[in-house]
Amino acid sequence: MNFDKETQVRILRVASDRHQGREVEELDARISHVMDLHPEFEEIWSMGEMAAYPQEINGQIVSPFVHTVLHTIVDSQIRTEQPEFVVEAFNKLRKQGMEEHEVLHAIITAFAELHFSSVRQGRPFDQLDYQSRLSYFSYEDVKES
Questions:
Q1: I need a surface site. Which of 66, 83, 105, 120 has the fewest CB within 10 A?
Q2: Alpha helices per DSSP H over 21-122
Q3: How many C-beta neighbours within 10 Å does residue 19 have?
Q4: HSE of 43, CA atoms in CB hemisphere, 13 A
């Protein structure tokens, strides 16, 4: 999944299908699941292309589009166990007592920092840095940040 117009259209289609009560295609079920995790975005999706822009939601500035894409990327990494260290970090934090959604957000934060940094610098994504960051995660560290 990319941060492009095609993905934006896809996410808006899934949001519309959900809103209209239509069945979501199997491939889009994970996007729908992410939307289920974020009911606070529900009215934003009806704004169409404006959902791609940052919005104030519950006192925070968030881009529902970017957040959904990041969630879907990390969800896919965990489900496919690619890279393997992502699911290992996920399982480790869950065993330490963290809620699933909190774990996802912690991993998303690490991924997003590296992804956007690499894009800004015109460099490839640094898998070793990603692995290193996730290997140091612990429930206590994530709670404090």
A1: 120
A2: 29-37, 42-45, 64-80, 84-95, 100-121
A3: 13
A4: 5
β-sheet bridge partners, residue 55: 62
Bridge partners (DSSP) of residue 57 are: 60
- Alpha-carbon span 16 to 99, nearest angstrom: 29
58 φ/ψ angles, rounded to the nearest 5 degrees: 55, 40
Q: Identify which of 75, 64, 53 has the alpha carbon closest to the alpha carbon of residue 1.
A: 75
Q: Give me the amino acid identity at 98.
A: M
**Cα 116 to Cα 54: distance, rounded to the nearest angstrom:** 16
Sole residue written with tokens 């979501």: 24
Long-range contact pairs involving 17-24 (C-beta distance under 8 Å, separation at least 24): 19/45, 19/46
Under a CB-based contact definition with an 8 Å cutoff, are residues 69 and 108 in contact? no
Q: Which residue in 77, 84, 103, 102 sits closest to 92, CA to CA?
A: 103
Query: pLDDT per residue over 33-65, tens digit each?
Result: 999 999 999 999 999 989 889 999 999 999 999
